[in-house]
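Example record

The entry below shows one chain as it appears in the dataset: sequence first, then structure tokens.
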Amino acid sequence: MKKRSIFLMAATATLYFNNAYAQETPQDSIKTSSIDQIVITGNSGPKKKIESSTAISTFTAKEIQKQNPISAAALLQRVPGFAVETSGGEVGNNLFARGIPSAGAYEFVQVQEDGLPVFEDGALQFANADNFFRVDNTVSRLEALRGGSGSIYANNSPGGLINFISKEGSNDFKGTAKLETSTYGLMRTDINVGGALVQDKLFFNVGGFYRTDNGIRKTGFRANNGGQIRMNLKYVFDKGYAKVYYKKLDDRNTFYLPIPLLQDGNDLKEFPGFNANYGTYSYRGVSQLNIPQAGGGFFKRDLENGIHPKVDVVGAEFKYDLGNNFSVLNKTRYTNINMEYTGMFPAGAPKLASDYATGAIKDGGLGMSNYQYSLVSNGALVNPQYIQKLGFWAIDKQMNNFVNDLQFNYKFDKGSVTAGFYKSNWKSHQYWNWSNVLATASDKPELLNLVNPSMGPSDTGYSQTYNGVKDMSFLIRDSQIQGSLNDAYLNFDYNVTEDLSLNAGMRYSRDYYKGYKVNTTTANLNNSGLTTDGTHSFATTTADDNMAVLGNQYTYWNYDINKVSYTLAANYKLNKGNAVYARFSHGFRSPNEEAYYNNISDLSAIKAVDTNQLEVGYKYYSRTFDIGIIPFYSTLKNLSFTDVFSDGTSENKFANTTNFGVEIEGYTRLFNNILEVTFNGTIQNPKYKDFVGKNADGTTFDYDGNIVRRMPKFYFNISPAVNITKEWRAYVSMNYYGKRFQNEGNTDDNVLPAFTEVGAGMSYQLGKIRFAVDGTNIFNTIGITEGDPRSQTAAGTNIRMARPIMGAAARASITLDF
């Protein structure tokens, strides 16, 4: 670890002290001038950034290339107002917009490709939106909108819109090819080509990537393996254009979950035998599951498949000038997803092996009078100090989404009117089969068997395990949710003067949700005729005593949404490069999937989350300096908390919140373009309001005025870069994430300490070839993004379960532009 950090620091220092300085704008400049940028997200049509009364951040393909983000979530860390947790790996990460709390995922923002959702709901259980999208060289630019008009142009997006816009072909044939490797076994190839099949008429673009690596955390297997291909074909005619496109994603990604750490005052340090920067419970030694089922047959699962989505997308876009200043735009897309999701979820913190075996059942022990542990792999007797119960969670999801957005636009001298109708039908069916396994509490865990040596191997209840499985298929869930969304929207832009513009928008949502769950019963394998080892029956083990079995009884539910979202804004250009704006918006988020499931017998207990936001902003853009300062205030009502715990249950609490904050985003070039600095930061104060009630055990709670869980009051990113020569460039990037609380009670034993993550890199441009080295977390910081929402703190110990960022790593790449 130290060698990697020293190497990265030395490489960066060498570049900084190189004495050849550029005297002209470098080829490798990180930033495109914002003064000329056009944005389309959250607007009725293309609009200059300075004229848009929205809080929007933009990143061109060149800027994304310079940052070389390891995931989509890592790229979104550069957006103020978005608190992003990146510790899950390449996918499965969490984004919180403007202090809006949730269980995770992308619950209050919508992730889009070319203005339509990657999937309609980006926060379905185990289906985070970033599971179905990858950043590669087919992306032309990213536009990230916070708050504002998000609720007018998309569903369930009061926190904002994240729109990845695809490259299209032009008359000039051009392309990019990239080869990348790393310190963790990465081999990745990206390619993108585009051009004209018929000059000025028919254009194409095709690209994608394939990647395999071992993962920064040491899994003992291929942690990430797969890729995608994206292509589009566009025909341009006198009065418009028609475009068709296709995407295929087939990728496997390991999902990293909390690990044990030791709390030392305000710091979290390594747990003995567990490397905080590179260790994981998702390890080869516990990766295979093959167990008989109470209903017959076997259930087999491979942890090495991790999160494995197979995504097929086909879509079309059509624009036509109807004459007399009228135009029509129609976007349509069909998405089909089959995803296998397998993760190793710790079921609480490690326990002393003796306490776990002999402790009282009411305290989480097994109440054994005598015990003996052995390794499943070879039968050797062992006496571990700590053991870990791990949830082997297996989920299968079949999802599809058909969406159509029809939009009419009328332009007049002073502005424009846009009216549209949005229709989306989507469905998600899921099957869960969860088991618990028993393992050593180390970063290379091994499966354990636990028996009572005072009994004979043929005695009933002799063993607590079956080949390391503590609870066989203890939870099975079969459920479905589907939505039928019918939304009409209207947007009005009016230029009062050349400098003053007004914007008003409204969206009427008439949405229908329905679904079902299959009820379950319990059974065991005692009388099945099966044996545990070819000799002994399942009566000799307790591992099968509480197996779930799907029945033939279904519970159905329906829920309707009838809501109006609206926004009103004004933008005033002080001069060519200065503008101020103000916006008020009201939006909502429909109840999430787990809220429906938990309240299936009485859906009146849940409501849509209502949001109100007020923001004012100042924006200044020039060729060498940009700044945006946006104070905001937001309130939320009926916010539900639906964390899924290790036993398959989930909490059912509802809260109101308030937040006041300021977003800052800036960029500057100094000293004749030698030094560039990009910066974004957020200062906020998200609090619970009127959050009182009863816990599941009947005790009362009062969290009124507490800080919203997992939300930092202050976080920022600053990235200075030195253009040493016209060809050479070096940069340092620093992410700071402030102190947070894991729980609503804001207790000291659930503090997530502040941390700073530093990255660094360099690049050299040789004609059309670019060489680059990028290092992440070069100081090997133990930075905690979240605790374990599925487990409470281990009482009476200083053991804490939390999910740290990845350890130090470096990537090297060669890119050819042609």
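Notes for this example: The chain is about 5% helix and 55% strand. The longest helix spans residues 2-16.
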